[in-house]
Amino acid sequence: MIKEELEPVLKERIRIADETQDEWDYGIDKCWEKEVEILTRDMAATINFIENECDDETFCWIGEVFYEVVAKTQSKDFFEAIKRRAAKVVDDEERRCVEVDLEHAGYELLDD
């Protein structure tokens, strides 16, 4: 279900970036908002998706909003799941990108 919901949003996000050549375009911001809404709706389902259904390319793209998901949910389980999943990314460049996204997301976790 999450994959099916994310797919058109990610396609739109990529299309906008390709057409505008502007990573700060308003349309991309709207796509990010939709991604966050999808990923924060049911954290158990999101963690399951991340760990069992999410391919590397999708994981890389949604990495852009990890910090917002963590800030909104304060889910340590989500953060740990994306850390585990990041270690499995095959492509070195994609893994480095996701590691940067993880670092930013980690800053959003509030101390207990």
Mean of residue pLDDT values? 93
Please, how many domains? 1
Gyration radius (Cα, Å) is: 13 Å
End-to-end distance: 33 Å
Biggest sheet, open or closed, and with what strands and sense? none
Order of helices and strands: HHHHHHH
Low-confidence runs of at least 5 consecutive residues: none
Beta-strand segment tally: 0
Fraction of helical residues: over 70%
Query: How many helical stretches?
Result: 7
| Strand residues, percent | under 5%
What global shape is seen?
globular
Indicate the structural class: mainly alpha
Q: Describe it for me?
A:
- The structure is a single chain.
- This protein has 112 residues and is mainly alpha-helical.
- It has one domain (2-108).
- It is 78% helix and 0% strand.
- The chain is built from 7 helices and no strands.
- The protein has helices at 2-20, 26-40, 43-52, 56-62, 66-73, 76-86, 92-108.
- The longest helix has 19 residues, at 2-20.
- The protein is globular and about 40 Å long.
- The N and C termini lie far apart (33 Å).
- 25% of the residues are buried.
- The model has no long low-confidence stretch (mean pLDDT 93).
